[in-house]
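From the methods appendix. Each design record in this collection lists the tokenized structure first, followed by the designed amino acid sequence. Records were kept in a plain field format so they could be parsed without special tools. The example shown here is representative of the layout used throughout.

RECORD:
FOLD TOKENS (130 positions):
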């Protein structure tokens, strides 16, 4: 799990929490989440220093979270700032407003991004409105 946490990226803590949540799910619960979300998200996060890191949440094939690009092609690529990601995951930032204001950019299946609230509520322990 510690390989996901990156100094200078607060968002990496949330990805680590999501990974831990997925890893502790029973096979039945994991299967339920994979069926419900059925998508692979690639997050390109930019921190305050202008550095970028990529994180992939696979909730389609194997239920994993990895630093960097995952082995499977992402269905949605989401570009967001580190602080904005923290606000989005904690529910302080509305996903649709973030998208409309340009804080959040999506390539690929836009509608899949609406399922991120499920990811954040169930796996990060927070509430996000998308």
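DESIGN:
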């Amino acid at each position: 799990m510690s390989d996901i946490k990156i100094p200078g990226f607060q968002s990496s803590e949330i990805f680590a929490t999501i990974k831990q949540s997925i890893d502790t799910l029973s096979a039945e619960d994991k299967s339920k989440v994979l069926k419900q979300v059925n998508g692979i998200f690639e997050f390109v996060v930019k921190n305050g220093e202008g550095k970028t890191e990529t994180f992939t949440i696979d909730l389609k094939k194997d239920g994993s979270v990895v630093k960097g690009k995952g082995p499977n092609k992402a269905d949605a690529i989401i570009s967001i700032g580190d602080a904005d990601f923290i606000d989005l995951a904690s529910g302080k930032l509305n996903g649709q407003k973030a998208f409309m204001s340009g804080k959040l950019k999506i390539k690929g299946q836009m509608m899949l991004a609406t399922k991120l609230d499920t990811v954040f509520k169930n796996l990060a322990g927070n509430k996000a409105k998308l």
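APPENDIX NOTE: The chain has five helices and five strands.
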